[in-house]
């Protein structure tokens, strides 16, 4: 029997040329149309027949110490390592007999890219291997053994015994990725979108937190959520490329992460609050008295009930109307600000704002917050009062997140609490219903932190049981408290005294006149000369008269429409009174 040379795909042989003797190589009968080829099954049959006639049992591959028993052959065999390679993106092509052509874990040391069949894993029972075997044709991998390979792909040798003794869930099949002719995954938006929603493929779970209004991620199965950063996008690209993706672009990864998050929303604040347990002991109604040192009155109880049900309501029903602001009034150093901050279950959910800030900046600061302090009422006089009222009343905010083209709207989840050292801070007597002043003394910050989760849990129960934010009693009782904290103009006392002083000529009280004019009051009550009366003085006396119970109106006097002030009661109960028009 002559020598039989068997060559695999990709190997070379000399079809025609010059023999070492100098003679040309000739083929009997001429060159064949193509070299004869046999299948793997035919090869195994041939080998078995040869083994029957010749003393052949095993073969040693050059450069490899792995002994192969050719008589052991199981077409389509698989093992744990092969399934691991399939599930984790290592497999490029499946061989006809169960072998996996894979990405080499040591490809950084290769001198060239090679073709996708240069590195293979043979599951136990294929190609004559009783145990799984790694083979790479690159010279840099000649010294690598199976243990090196298993460690490189993330499987330790001592893992296998545990796998056989415990029940392991079947790995999910990979998505139907579009691949190139070498088996690499194309970096298309469709492929990338399929990949990032598979935590078992990219190692992380991507979702959108509606409370924080941002994209979050957690290691697969951990439940420990944190915000996506620029570095995390880069890590995700690296993971995908290790799993067989072609290079993934920066814009592409941001688009598919946003899509994946948008399709998997959750609300961390609702989840947190619903997970708290209440011990059944009432605390929130007397909270201001027990923790902030206020007097124990129906008013302080009502304000406390409002604040806590508003806090719970803004979590459970995002954007619910909560347009009143408790204001803690107390001396410097009593712990007002620390107490307000302690209301937040985490420092990350607390912020401090000022009315002097721009709306865009405020919107960013309020995103993902539960408590906001209006510290010392800073900025209260930097905007028109109507703007401040509108700001407090708003239920939603607009802002443009980083790397987003369009503005997004999010519902407010926080409650405002003001703090001040001043005794007088309410400037508008007619629009104070939104402010709930409370006199505090020594704030017990430790007690707030100790009872915080129980307070939040009770607030949730009260909000749900009573059907919403409890604001009516606080609003009604606050009306009698506002006067104490209203800013007093120096002219106010003078004007009030003048209103109750009889006129020297008519002996009539100015308060009893049907209406008053600003210029007359400035001249006769304040003593200003007409040439010193300007817009500023008119606006100031207007506020004073409104605090005295008057309202602006218009009357036709001497054929001209004139701005006047009428007592509020006169607007609803007209009386025939003489005009109070002073003459020089």
From TrEMBL:
<dbReference type="InterPro" id="IPR007936">
    <property type="entry name" value="VapE-like_dom"/>
</dbReference>
<feature type="domain" description="Virulence-associated protein E-like">
    <location>
        <begin position="273"/>
        <end position="485"/>
    </location>
</feature>
<dbReference type="Pfam" id="PF05272">
    <property type="entry name" value="VapE-like_dom"/>
</dbReference>
<dbReference type="InterPro" id="IPR027417">
    <property type="entry name" value="P-loop_NTPase"/>
</dbReference>
<protein>
    <submittedName>
        <fullName>Putative virulence associated protein virE</fullName>
    </submittedName>
</protein>
